[in-house]
Amino acid sequence: MQTSTSNAEAERRIQKLTQHLNPLLMSDTNYLYIVSCAARTKLNVDTSSLSSYMRGKYRDIQEKVFNYFNANPHLQTPLEISKDNHRELCMKQLVGLVREAGIRPLRYVLHDPSTYFSLLEAVGSVDMSLGIKMGSNVQGLQTIATFDPITDEFIIDTPNDGAIKWWIGNAAVHGKFATVFARLKLPTYDTKGVSDMGVHAFIVPIRDMKTHEPLPGIEIHDCGHKVGLNGVDNGALRFRSVRIPRDNLLNRFGDVSRDGKYTSNLPSANKQFAATLGELVGGRVGLAYSSVSVLKVAATIATRYSLLRQQFGPPNQPEVSILDYQSQQHKLMPMLASTYAFHFATTNLVEMYSEMKKTHDEELVADVHALSAGLKAYVTSYTAKSLSVCREACGGHGYAAVNRFGSLRNDHDIFQTFEGDNTVLLQQVAGDLLKQYQRKFKGGTFAVTWNYLRESMNTYLSQPNPVTARWEGEDHLRNPKFQLDAFRYRTSRLLQSVAVRLRKHSKSLGSFGAWNRCLNHLLTLAESHIESVILAKFIEAVDSCSDPSSQAALKLVCDLYALDRIWNDIGTYRNVDYVAPNKAKAIHKLSEYLSFQVRNIAGELVDAFDLPDHVTRAPIAMQSEAYSQYTQHVGFE
Ligand SMILES: Cc1cc2nc3c(=O)[nH]c(=O)nc-3n(C[C@H](O)[C@H](O)[C@H](O)COP(=O)(O)OP(=O)(O)OC[C@H]3O[C@@H](n4cnc5c(N)ncnc54)[C@H](O)[C@@H]3O)c2cc1C
């Protein structure tokens, strides 16, 4: 921290005043005192260093995308646009990006996923529909692909109406090919008839290249007008004995020879399944990462507006900015801190994913699978809620479509559902944790991300220490060890207690019934685990930052993230006396104080997201002359 010790008492007084006095009733002397001290306690943030630490090597390619759309205003999505026009525009945006800007996203999918996801982030900031259109694919686990050795073809079938593939991006209008995940069936020439080789990916042409009509056996219906993302043409697909050449099997993990023999370079069916699964998680990784970029845009708009907008103040004094109100800080500052936390967690996920694509390491595949499910669910739910908070935090102007919250909220909302419903995904995380827990008691090894549970179980399951439960000093509360211990303690308790409950209920209810009886407990466990992972990654990012001013800012933001989360769940900690009443009070006070300190550098923190005005686009968030730009937009001279 850059504030001197002598300032600490002054800061505390400011915080006390801002906490306990309604600014409307504040005396002039107090008010001036607050303003002057606030200026003194402000950290100096070097925005450009912080920004390059955040964006790293992807800055250039993202700028290329932003510049292309800035230079081509006709390709920017207007506020009012019909579904059909939006679909056409979205297609033109994609074609322009590839042909004119020379950006070929698919080139990166296989060999450089990190660059691909950063492109997705930039493109999604321009129009979320475009980001989704670039990443859509088809998955159908009930769909069947049967090999016909006579014609050397696979026959693709949708076995029943329940297996019709709904909501396939690009299918309703523009798509010519689909990547279809289907169960591969091979003839066995015995009484069994066929054997099921598990899920494989196939390229299936769906429309005629010249006439663009659906091909024989392929039925396509338009899913119609949606709540958002109307630039994407979603369709429902049914396959009836569609024949494709044997070569259309994507054979990286398993192949079929001309005489119908199956070969694979992977040693076991488990490894093959893990590798195929690895291919499916890319969508979730992309959604978690893109959701953070939506949160960055929303937090930028809401923070800039809150700094600009002045409302009321002490008698005979200038009005104060609405971000000076404690309530506004409470709405927005922990959210800004979370945006930073999620940035580092999802960047790390992308790196793990890239490594997994290179090595196909089985443990890493399992780790990325569970972590992508958890982060996708946690981050997208948080962003969806935050978009409403940001809208409300900007008052009436937040409701104007031009200020973006409506379209961001509508477009982003489905992130909670596609690539796996969030409630279902969190259950996968809980299931994985339980598996790890069982292994611990059977003496097996723990996968990488869950390693901390191995260390934590013995420590955290013992009774809380009554002495440390009372420690309330700022140094202690801002110590990453205390913060991480607290998060992990909660996860370990939840894990151990749910395991006991599941065992008890499964005797009378069976495993499905027991799972359902403990479902809310399981979801809380999964969220708690994901919060621990996010905090651990944030702490690592603070430690690795070499620029002192950026590091001080990140440390402040990280402390706010950690203490705000602990305070949000303080009941759990109090219930088991992990924190005594005095400590709970100190955590609350400190998190409000940190919100106030973050408020002092909020402008710099959102500037470090490095989103140009032509990307944020909301007139209330312009970096200069925001009010006049807005009044001009409405029509005032
Ligand atoms: C705009 C859009 C685009 C899409 N794009 C694609 C695409 O390109 N490719 C593709 O393959 N798919 C796509 N999808 C499909 C998407 O992946 C599914 O909609 C999603 O997986 C959820 O499945 P569902 O709609 O059947 O919901 P349901 O499973 O019916 O869920 C409905 C509700 O039931 C609850 N629920 C369901 N199961 C459980 C459970 N086990 N425990 C507790 N609660 C449960 C859920 O929490 C949810 O609240 C898209 C969907 C949309 C809307």
UniProtKB/TrEMBL annotation:
<dbReference type="GO" id="GO:0055088">
    <property type="term" value="P:lipid homeostasis"/>
</dbReference>
<dbReference type="InterPro" id="IPR036250">
    <property type="entry name" value="AcylCo_DH-like_C"/>
</dbReference>
<dbReference type="InterPro" id="IPR009100">
    <property type="entry name" value="AcylCoA_DH/oxidase_NM_dom_sf"/>
</dbReference>
<protein>
    <recommendedName>
        <fullName>Acyl-coenzyme A oxidase</fullName>
    </recommendedName>
</protein>
<keyword id="KW-0274">FAD</keyword>
<keyword id="KW-0560">Oxidoreductase</keyword>
<feature type="active site" description="Proton acceptor">
    <location>
        <position position="419"/>
    </location>
</feature>
<keyword id="KW-0809">Transit peptide</keyword>
<keyword id="KW-0276">Fatty acid metabolism</keyword>
<dbReference type="GO" id="GO:0003997">
    <property type="term" value="F:acyl-CoA oxidase activity"/>
</dbReference>
<dbReference type="GO" id="GO:0005504">
    <property type="term" value="F:fatty acid binding"/>
</dbReference>
<dbReference type="Pfam" id="PF22924">
    <property type="entry name" value="ACOX_C_alpha1"/>
</dbReference>
<feature type="domain" description="Acyl-CoA oxidase C-terminal">
    <location>
        <begin position="479"/>
        <end position="623"/>
    </location>
</feature>
<dbReference type="GO" id="GO:0005777">
    <property type="term" value="C:peroxisome"/>
</dbReference>
<dbReference type="GO" id="GO:0071949">
    <property type="term" value="F:FAD binding"/>
</dbReference>
<dbReference type="GO" id="GO:0033540">
    <property type="term" value="P:fatty acid beta-oxidation using acyl-CoA oxidase"/>
</dbReference>
<comment type="similarity">
    <text>Belongs to the acyl-CoA oxidase family.</text>
</comment>
<dbReference type="InterPro" id="IPR002655">
    <property type="entry name" value="Acyl-CoA_oxidase_C"/>
</dbReference>
<feature type="domain" description="Acyl-CoA oxidase C-alpha1">
    <location>
        <begin position="278"/>
        <end position="433"/>
    </location>
</feature>
<feature type="binding site">
    <location>
        <position position="169"/>
    </location>
    <ligand>
        <name>FAD</name>
    </ligand>
</feature>
<dbReference type="InterPro" id="IPR055060">
    <property type="entry name" value="ACOX_C_alpha1"/>
</dbReference>
<keyword id="KW-0285">Flavoprotein</keyword>
<dbReference type="InterPro" id="IPR012258">
    <property type="entry name" value="Acyl-CoA_oxidase"/>
</dbReference>
<dbReference type="InterPro" id="IPR046373">
    <property type="entry name" value="Acyl-CoA_Oxase/DH_mid-dom_sf"/>
</dbReference>
<keyword id="KW-0576">Peroxisome</keyword>
<keyword id="KW-0443">Lipid metabolism</keyword>
<dbReference type="Pfam" id="PF01756">
    <property type="entry name" value="ACOX"/>
</dbReference>
